[in-house]
Specification:
The chain is α+β, with helices and mostly antiparallel strands. It has a single domain, classed as Multidrug-efflux Transporter Regulator, Chain: A, Domain 2 (Orthogonal Bundle), CATH 1.10.1660. It has helices at about 5-10, 35-40, 45-55, 70-80, and strands at about 30, 60-65, 65-70. The protein has a 3-stranded antiparallel β-sheet with strand order 1-3-2. β2 and β3 form a beta hairpin. The protein is globular and about 45 Å long.
């Protein structure tokens, strides 16, 4: 095994490096977290919570204790704000 092959093998072997996370295959996104939504629509979390408080925020769903915004809800929220 060459040095280059060995370094590639070490990068993705969780048995050798248990602290590294295994790369996941890309899956289509089903929902945003609040932070991801804010990043996607270029608003601050403070603005998100202001919008939510006055009823102008996107529809949310709960998954256990997590808050998620579906892609459909995010798109509907965005369309409602188009001029």
């Amino acid at each position: 095994m060459t040095q280059q092959t060995r370094s590639v093998a070490l990068k993705f072997n969780p048995e050798i490096m248990p602290g590294r996370k295994r790369m996941r295959s890309p899956m289509p996104r089903a929902a945003y977290s609040v932070r991801e939504f804010c990043d996607a629509y270029a608003i601050s979390k403070a603005m998100y919570y202001k919008l939510k408080k006055n009823g102008s925020g996107p529809k949310e769903m709960r998954v256990g204790s997590l808050v998620r915004i579906s892609l459909e809800a995010a798109q509907a929220w965005n369309r409602a704000r188009e001029l």
